[in-house]
Amino acid sequence: MALLKNVAEDLQEDALLEKAPSFEGRFLAMTLAPSPSLKNNKNSRETESAKT
Questions:
Q1: Is 19 in contact with 29 (CB distance < 8 Å)?
Q2: How many angstroms from the chain centroid is the CA of residue 21?
């Protein structure tokens, strides 16, 4: 469980934590989603490259 918490902390700038680390039966589970700021950065890079 501590490993998933460390991963969530490390990815805090790059991803949103949708579901906190938890046990699901025998498995550890955690759900992450891309950060909206990363999505905006990608879109701005695509539009800049399309202009050139």
A1: yes
A2: 13
Tokens of 42: 């990608």
pTM, entire model: 0.60
DSSP letter for 1, please: -
Cβ-count burial 2-35 (b if 16+ within 10 Å, e if not) = eeeeeeeeeeeeebebeeebeeeeeeeebeeeee
CA neighbor of 13 nearest in space, from 45, 36, 46, 44? 36
Q: Which residues contact 34 (CB under 8 A, 6 or more apart)?
A: 14, 15, 16
| Residue 2 confidence (pLDDT) above 80 | yes
